[in-house]
Amino acid sequence: MEVLISILAAAVRSGTPILYATLGEILTERAGVLNLGLEGLMLMGALSGFWVAYSTSSVTFALVAAFLVGAAIALIHAFLCVHLGANQVVSGLAITMCGTGASSLLGRGLVGETIKGIGVLPIPVLSKIPIIGPVLFNHDPLVYLSYVLVIGMSWFLYSTKAGLNLRAVGEAPGAVDAVGLDPVKLRYLYTVIGGGLAAIGGAYLSLVYTKMWGEHMTAGRGWIAVALVIFAIWHPARAALGAYLFGGVGALQLRMQAAGTSIPAPLLLMLPYLLTILVLLGISIKKGKGILLGAPSALGVPYQREERT
Amino acid sequence: MLRKVMLFLAIVCFAVSSMAAYAAEGIPEEKLTAGFVYIGPIGDGGWTYMHDLGRLEMEKAYPKMKTFFAESVPEGPDSARVMETFVRNGAQLVFATSFGYMDFVQEVAKKYPKVKFMHCSGYKRAENVGTYFGRMYQARYLSGLVAGKATKSNIIGYVAANPIPEVIRGINAFALGVRKVNPKAKIKVVWLFSWFDPGKEKEATLALIDSGADVIAMHADSGAAPQAAEEAGVYVIGYNNDMSKYAPTKHLTAPIWNWGTVYKYVAGQVINGTWKSEDIWWGLKEGLVDLAPFGKDVPELVKEMVKVERDAIINGKHVFVGPIKNQKGEIVVKEGTAMTDEEMLGMNWFVEGVEGDIPN
Questions:
Q1: Is the pLDDT of residue A235 over 60?
Q2: In chain B, which residue's Cα lies nearest the Cα of A106?
Q3: DSSP letters spanning chain A
Q4: Å between A219 CA and nearest CA of chain B
Q5: Residue A140 pLDDT
Q6: Which residue in A115, B13, B84, B327 has the most C-beta neighbors within 10 A?
Q7: What is the fold, at CATH topology level, of the domain defined by B136-254+292-355?
Q8: B96-122 pLDDT, tens digit each
């Protein structure tokens, strides 16, 4: 039992950075903009968060800084893709490459430094509940914030007018335009917020998870988040499930090695990716013609007024 | 005809004598330029970081010489291009600091016979290509003595990057050290399948602690494992450099690299004109590997014992000397025989006391 609790708690802990990035990308993609720059955004978030925490020792400032840096970089992506109608794949990849390079360069002086960071803060009553308590409510504040975000985003997307507008702009920006809303403004807004959230995911790594800065410390988590958006079929709650699944499998295979079982670890590590492929396969077959079920119809298509799409 | 032969002989004589002059003469310090090819970013805080400290130490010893470096160079044809660029920009000495550059070093070295190449951890040499590496296993063995004395649960966790002979050799040497002072102790190995992923290093550490380990040792490039051990209140042995910063109260010691010793030696030889292709595999004796300062919880008696063993190794004691049993308890190295360098370089089995598999 204790082993199970420890694995599930590890799943939540190690799934959280990926969850933030996935939630950010869901917002962005729901608005019809594909941002493949998550890895770069996370790295810049990790660096700027660590930098500010290191020099001001305020984690609040650090998180704000990370969000703003992520938002600012996403703004460039929005300008290129929403404003100028540039290729979103190319722009996203450019952000990943630039973010990786820039964070390495700027973070040189911070290597080997440590900070106090954000510690564990058990929630008084809830953390005492058997099983659920230690698994869900014995973490750091950023984990709790991610719960709020998952619930809040699910409610926002499906129960509010603003959420409806967001989904509409990813499905049919022309229709949104016709009812008098500005699709360009909406796409800007959600791309910027999405970038900020991805950067928070990165900052989680450098402020909470491992309180240090190391070049390329995200180690591919941004790409996992890109895959998770599809796994979640663009839904925040399923994103949480997916992120914890990825985290859980990672934690499980390490514990299985420590326990001395003979199931090859790489096989287990493949599992979440395999599931992603299966989901992708499933939603592709259902709809056919290369269109993904549940994907925003206008995803990746720049919107220009007066132009038929 | 005779004149032609004479002329030819004269040319040959001239060429040979000028070549001989070149070979015997060193390159004055102010004219010497060395290029370094790095596998990772300097900011990895581990492998490449330590090589770069070595480069800086060499620059300090020979302040008039110039150095170039290129970071994050993949182990492919790109590395050959980087080395050629170094040479074209005037480098007479090139250090390639990762195993996978081996064939590309050979290729470029053939093209530029006057340039000297030093390849780290490889085994292919040529007239102008030497190799160098460190006997890290000696320091690993010493750190094992410390860990063996520190454990109460007799379970020691080992966070290991990738299953290659270098890492396996380190684990085995560590285990021999542990079991010398504590024959009941077991070493549990968890593989990361990655050199640098702080998050995973932390989770692996916690997984080992969950399974009963009360001392953690590691072979990975970040300080995440020591940090996680400190948070969990478990002793830890770092790697690469002194990692006590990450675990101020729980860091026992760390086997560390000191590449500056080799780099200074090689640069000195090139300057004096005494450089020859050789295989440098230095250890504690030459100072290429060593232990980081002990943590406050290491008892005086243990420090004393490590010092005795350290002196013994410096005076020629071999770490891998029989009888050594494998995991099944079969004797692999017979009593009284020592493993050869070739055998150690290809090590692909665990010694008795290590728990875990070596994936193929």
A1: yes
A2: B43
A3: -HHHHHHHHHHHHHHHHHHHHHHHHHHHHHTT---TTHHHHHHHHHHHHHHHHHHH--HHHHHHHHHHHHHHHHHHHHIIIIIS---HHHHHHHHHHHHHHHHHHHTGGGTT-B---------TTGGGSTTHHHHHSSS-HHHHHHHHHHHHHHHHHHHSHHHHHHHHHHH-HHHHHHTT--HHHHHHHHHHHHHHHHHHHHHHIIIIIS-B--TTTTTTHHHHHHHHHHHTTT-HHHHHHHHHHHHHHHHHHHHHHHHT--S-HHHHHHHHHHHHHHHHHHHHHHH-TTPPTTS-TTTTPPP-TT---
A4: 6
A5: 95
A6: A115
A7: Rossmann fold (3.40.50)
A8: 999 889 999 999 999 999 999 999 988
